[in-house]
Every structure is written in structure tokens, then in C-alpha cells.
Design goal:
Elements (H helix, E strand, L loop, with lengths): L2 H13 L66 H17 L3 H31 L5 H4 L5 H21 L3 E6 L4 H17 L2 E6 L14 E2 L3 H5 L6 E6 L3 E7 L4 H15 L4 H6 L23 H16 L10
Parallel strand pairs: 1-2, 2-3
Antiparallel strand pairs: 1-4, 4-5
Helix pairs in contact: 2-3, 5-8
InterPro entries: T4SS_TraF-like (IPR014111), Thioredoxin-like_sf (IPR036249), TraF/TrbB (IPR039555)
Protein name: TraF-like protein
Pfam families: TraF (PF13728)
């Protein structure tokens, strides 16, 4: 057979329809000749049926454009107000991210700029108002920077002076155990407080044994005081004022500053030092109390000027109290 005849035969075979294989066995498909090794045709999955009620979109149909939700003002807030920006700014940002056209991006940036400018104007006004009103200026209460160190030093001097006066009428009970490492660490702190302020410290041993370091050698064994006072942990400290004043301070290890502060607070609560003495121990120039507690106005004026005048009048008439009248030098 010539080459032309072979090409013609191949062309005819290629154009002939493929036989239907179905489930026929190989020996039943002898008409395939030497094409018996041809692979089975791939199985084409049937398309899933469309869910009922959903129209198909053809090439001649276009999906309806999505409507943009209107920028409704929450609770009737004015457009471009802080409430309006809080409710709508994120929506314009998402719109610019999803569809970053020049218009959408510029629109979001303008709204963001408006919000930043509002915040900047508020910050400037905030600073001016605070500087012009001593009841709102925090430097009236406590200076900043290096001057705070001066205030801390003066407050420390006043604290030691008030504690020295308190030591003339009160003392400390120190409950310990000889095998308690925290009691051994607390003892030197109590000794320093005693030397600095004159506080008398009576050590009471729960196990009737001395401390291993030799502190408070003149201790007393517990005679039931710990049980009556509810001691559950050591070291335990109580502020005692004869004949019957006993105030708990702590049942745990305290630093010197914490111990001093707790002694002052306990003595104030017990009425053994007055508010003026206690205030001098705090590192504050003045303690302005703008909040007057339960004596709040029964009706709040609608006019902001009237409301502000009411607040200022109340503060000036005694709602705020300057408790520090001692010099700083």
C-alpha cells in the first residue's frame, strides 16, 4: 500500500464514529483491531440540578446592580457630626477597599480628615480649658517633673512626724513563729520603724521560741491573743492603743512604705488621727474633691452654661476641699 493510501486509511478511521463500549468485554470488541489498547473515555460528571426558584443568568442578562445603603444618621444626628462619622466612616472605608476607585478612596480620606481635625480641635480646647481652671488642672493637685520629688520628700517628712505622734499613744503587736522565714524578714523592718518613729513593738511568739536572728529578744509567748484576734498566718501585725483599741494591719510580709501607709490608714479609720494630719502625709499639694457624693443636683439643667455654672458654684462653695496648707520649702 502506498503512503497516500495509508494516510487516507488513517484519516477515514479518525473520522469514523467511536464504538459504544458500554459493559462489553474485550473479546466482544474485536472490531477495534489493533486499537484495543486505547484507554477508556473519561467519565463526564453530570451537572448538578439548579435549585428551584433561582433564575439562570444568561449572556444576554446582566445582574441587577446592588443598591448602596443610604447613610442614615443615627438617632437623627447631623451629617458629618461625630456621631454620624462614628456610624458611617467604617462603611465608606469598606467601600473604598472593595471598590478602590479614585472617588471612593478620596471620599473616605476626606471623611477621615474631618474626623482627625475634629479630634485635634477638641484636644486644643481641652488643654486650654484645663489650664484655665484650677479645679481641672492636675498640676494643682500634684506637680510634674522633678518637682514631684520635692513633694515626695516633704510628704515623707510629714508621714514620719504623724507616725511619731501616733507612737506616743499606740504600739504594734507582732505575732510570729520561730520557723517562719517571712517573720525573720519582717523583724528588721519593724526594728527600723521603731528606731525612726519611736513605735513600740511587742513580739509575741506562737511557738514560745525566739527568732533565729536575735531580733526582739524580749518576746512574749502567745497566751491566747492570736486565737482571739483571728491570726491565721504569720507575720501578723496589729495596731494597739490602750486600753482596748486594736486594729488589724496585715497578716503577711510588708515593706516599710506599705507598713507606714497601712498604719496611717488604720489610725485614720479608727479616729486616732484627724483628716488634716492624714492629708499632710500624702504627696499632694491639694486634694480637690469635685465629686460631692450623694448630694448630687436633683435636676440637670438643659442649658450647658447653666449646668456648668451649677457645677462650679458647688465646687467653689465646698464641694472641693484644699487639704494641704503646709509650705513646700
Amino acid at each position: 500500500m502506498s503512503i497516500r493510501g495509508v494516510l487516507l486509511l488513517v484519516t477515514v478511521i479518525g473520522l469514523a464514529p467511536m464504538p459504544v463500549w458500554g459493559d462489553a468485554r474485550f473479546y466482544d470488541r474485536d472490531a477495534e483491531g489493533w486499537f484495543w489498547y486505547a484507554p477508556d473515555p473519561p467519565t463526564v460528571p453530570e451537572p448538578d440540578p439548579e435549585p428551584p426558584g433561582v433564575p439562570l443568568v444568561t449572556e444576554s442578562q446582566e445582574p441587577a446592580p446592588q443598591e448602596t445603603a443610604p447613610a442614615d444618621s443615627p438617632s437623627g444626628s447631623a451629617p458629618l457630626s461625630s456621631a454620624w462619622l462614628r456610624a458611617n466612616l467604617e462603611r465608606y472605608q469598606q467601600q473604598a477597599i472593595d471598590d478602590p476607585t479614585a472617588t471612593n478612596v478620596a471620599l473616605y480620606l476626606y471623611l477621615q480628615r474631618i474626623a482627625l481635625d475634629k479630634a485635634s480641635r477638641f484636644a486644643d480646647a481641652y488643654q486650654r480649658v484645663v489650664q484655665s481652671d484650677p479645679y481641672l488642672d492636675e498640676t494643682t493637685r500634684r506637680p510634674v517633673g522633678n518637682y514631684a520629688n520635692l513633694l515626695n520628700r516633704v510628704a515623707g517628712q510629714e508621714r514620719r512626724a504623724v507616725l511619731a505622734d501616733l507612737a506616743g499613744a499606740a504600739g504594734l503587736w507582732f505575732f510570729y513563729r520561730s520557723d517562719c522565714p517571712y517573720c525573720a524578714a519582717q523583724a528588721p523592718v519593724l526594728g527600723f520603724l521603731s528606731r525612726q518613729t519611736g513605735f513600740r513593738v511587742q513580739a509575741i511568739a506562737l511557738d514560745a521560741r525566739p527568732l533565729p536572728g536575735g531580733d526582739f529578744a524580749h518576746f512574749l509567748p502567745d497566751a491566747g491573743q492570736a486565737a482571739r484576734l483571728g491570726v491565721v498566718s504569720t507575720p501578723a501585725l496589729f495596731l494597739v492603743r490602750p486600753p482596748s483599741g486594736i486594729v488589724p494591719i496585715a497578716q503577711g510580709l510588708l515593706s516599710l512604705s506599705d507598713l507606714e501607709q497601712r498604719l496611717l490608714s488604720a489610725a485614720r479609720e479608727a479616729g486616732w488621727i484627724d483628716d488634716a494630719s492624714y492629708a499632710r502625709t500624702r504627696p499632694l499639694v491639694a486634694d480637690w474633691r469635685v465629686d460631692w457624693g450623694q448630694a448630687a443636683p436633683l435636676e440637670v439643667p438643659e442649658d450647658p452654661n447653666a449646668f456648668l455654672a451649677l457645677l462650679r458654684a458647688r465646687v467653689a462653695s465646698g464641694g472641693a476641699i484644699a487639704v494641704s496648707d503646709w509650705p513646700l520649702d
